[in-house]
Amino acid sequence: MIAGPSAASTAGHPLRSLGLWARPRASATIDEDALYKAASVARPELVKNLLEVSLNGDFIKARDALDGLLIEYGLSGEDVEALIAHFVLAGQDLKKK
Known about the structure:
Number of helices: 7
Helix content: 55-70%
Distance between the termini: 51 Å
Number of strands: 0
Structural class: mainly alpha
Strand content: under 5%
Radius of gyration: 17 Å
């Protein structure tokens, strides 16, 4: 059940589709990180960090970064793969030490 305005008045509302309609009542602010998590999309800098630590051979940190994406952001392995492909195909620069 939606907290706040009636369900009929929120039908098709973009915040409802993201599950954010009731969130302002649960926390004082909606920040950028909360929006990324609610939309199940990782922040670009987290994907970049995952790739950089992987390329640098620090696989423990890479596993921890991947776990963060899977658990904290609720992404699937397929989601992470798509984000990595998008990141690489967009021509982002990676720092390899």
